[in-house]
Amino acid sequence: MSRLTDMLWTRLTGMMPGELDRSEFVWLVSPHTHFQLLTRRRATMIVNRVRILALLFGVLTPLWTIIDYVVFPQLLWLQLVALRVSASIAFFAIVVGYRPAGRMGDAYRAIGLLFAVPTVFYVASHQMLAGMQLSGLSSAIATGYAFLPFVLLAGLSIFPLTLLESLMVASPILCAHLLSGYLNWPTLEWPSFAGAFWLMTLITGVSALAGISQLAFMIALVRQAIRDPLTGAFSRRSGEEILDLQFALAERNNRPFSIAFVDLDHFKSVNDNFGHEAGDQILREAASRLASLLRRSDTLVRWGGEEFILILQDTRSDCADHFLERLRAQGFGLRPDDAPVTASIGVAERMLDRSRNWQQLLELADRRMYHAKSNGRDRIIGCTFPPESLSQVSQVCTQAG
Length: 401
Description:
Number of helices: 14
Structural class: alpha+beta
Largest sheet: 5 strands, mixed
Order of helices and strands: HHHHHHHHHHEHHEEHEHE
Helix content: 55-70%
Strand order of the largest sheet: 2-3-1-4-5
Distance between the termini: 54 Å
Number of strands: 5
């Protein structure tokens, strides 16, 4: 079994060299293990593309009534006009009703509605046309209505979807084709019907592959954009997004949420005395040690220079203090002169500090960190230190390394 797995892995990495790590290939199959920032960006892209397609369909759908007027009887034309106008209104409702908010629930609803409107249109128009005796040009135009499912399935290729998501979106369209065959069972032409279904299945596969390829490329780009290249921690910009997401979640669920502001002590002297390469090595080692004790739900952010932020989701202040003491006992590495690297740490917790937003919480953790520096460094100032006592902390500490 392991040999088969290794062989499949070799084949896959050969098709997408250098794009994904082995652990990330499961992200192409199911969205359940995607990290928050990827989910947010993907949801935004899906909603934006849904709105573009909906606008295109909303404009083009009623324009075809001119062709219908030329080739179809008046009664059938009026029925098709009503159907087309209704579909166009539904498309414009999608354009107006959805705005990118970074939530996959909105993205799923938007893409579901986008594909549901043409699917209903296809089934309804197919029934209208099946009851008519058409010939010549009108018969040829009527046949063109049967190509709508193919267009929809091909349209899947513009979305960065996982394999599971592509199959879930395509399944109703394939089922609609089967339903149309069932409704016309007495007059069904089996060779033509089976050939069309096979072609739709093939298009679904190609579109799913295109969507997966987009997703793989997006994962690689997002990973590069959100990580600090030196330490591998999240960058400051992505850290702000994570803080915004997780603080809102903690507030909505009334759960604890802690932030630790970590500043390496005397770091400037390392750069001055041993060079920036030695400083970079210390930053890499410190980030590695910080990350080694974090849970999967926690986040390490390089805030700037020698400053790091630990985002501790669903963590009370006492638990945060206990975790940070373990971290401090483990140490942050060694300087080139073999002296231990130490850090000054400030902690703040949403509920205990009654913070209204993550910016206020982060500022409080920052002030406690400076208080730790002004009182000898290599220590932790937690939530037991009241915010009002921090107002006199000297800003001279900002000059200390």
